[in-house]
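Q: Hand in one record:
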Amino acid sequence: MNVTGRRHRHSPLVRRLAAEHDVDPDRLAGSGPSGRVTRRDVLEAVRGTAPPDLGVGGERTSPLLALIARRLVESLRASAQVTRVVEVDVTGVSALRPALAEAVAAALDRHPALSPCSVTTVDDGDALVETPVLRPPQVAVLNAGTPVQRPVVRDGAVVVRWVVLLALGYDQRVVEPAEVARFLAEIRADLERLSA
């Protein structure tokens, strides 16, 4: 019986394999059609590589979310992911997303090793930044946090400015940290030019 109190149908192979390895198939996030638990799901649970069933309120995770979670875990295992975070003054930026997209596109022209680089944003208003995880074949993903007002030093005086954290997750096997630093510095300079 799973946490929702409902019994799920499993194939005889899945039931036998789960019993042999003392795995409760009702507690696995199924990756098969309609969320069915597959042989692969049981074997991943045995190896300890299966993503947990992160259901909300006792409900099972949807098959799509389970698949996304499995792929992200595989990505983390297969690459040397590193995250670099910089703070950017965006006081003069009236629309962050378009300005950021333009700055990233310009920087990508000068740093082709970072293609394909996607851009995500934190939209819930509570998180300053999130650590992005690469989705192969990506080599980099940039996450823009929520802009917040913060005291900063400008020309020797403390002033309140709008700042945002930019977190660039990248595969260090493919991209050099020095190139990442230059890439982010160029994006910061483009955005801060609007705030001068």
In short: The first helix runs from residue 12 to 20. Residues 1-6 have pLDDT under 50 and may be disordered.
